[in-house]
Amino acid sequence: MTAPVALAVAGLWLGCSPLVLAADPVPEIKRAPITAQAVGAVHSLRQIPEACARMEGAFTGDAAQPYRYGVVRTSPQCQPRARFVDFAKAQPSTAKGWTFNDEIRVPNAACPSQQAVVRVWRKPVASAKPTLDAQGQARVYLEDAKQQAAAGNVPQVPLFAAQMTVEGKACR
Predict the structure, then answer these.
(1) Is there a contact between 121 and 101 (Cβ–Cβ < 8 Å)?
(2) What is the reported pTM?
């Protein structure tokens, strides 16, 4: 095979590579895979302070459901400024105003060919600057907030949703 033909074939191969044709946009946060985790070891994936939430997961060792993850509240005193919603109900996409925020890859220590992948999406809200009072502070008064809520004028908050998949071959 001549050099120009070899380059053309290589270019076609790279052009059809799944890496190039990936449907997902590039996440806002770029990170390397986290340290390989042992089966049964619960580990934190990511903390989302504005939603008062922490995502944690664990490899189960079960072939039917090799990895499980969940979202737990960080503190009962925390006042969330964002909400974590169900991925299946929200169906986030860039067309719906969501942003692909983060991709977390967790290798299985007992099975190097397998990894859990958690994709986090974020839906920001367009917010106007709050009105400042005479002292330069933005204040929310309880009675005013109750009246706004009763009128159905509740301010929107940013939303987060996450999807988990397991990639690679299962070990026996």
Answers:
(1) yes
(2) 0.73
Distant-in-sequence, close-in-space partners of 125: CB < 8 Å, separation ≥ 6: 156, 157, 158
- Please tell me the distance from the alpha carbon of residue 48 to that of residue 104, in angstroms, as a whole number: 13
- CA dist., res. 106 & res. 63, Å (int): 17
Q: What pLDDT, in 10s, does the model give residues 110-128?
A: 998 999 999 999 999 876 6
> Which structure tokens are listed for 151?
């009128």
Contacts of 25 (CB under 8 A, 6+ apart): 94, 100
Average pLDDT of the segment spanning 78-98:
94
Give the integer Cα–Cα distance in Å for 122 and 159.
6
Q: Map out the domains of the chain as residue ranges.
A: 24-168
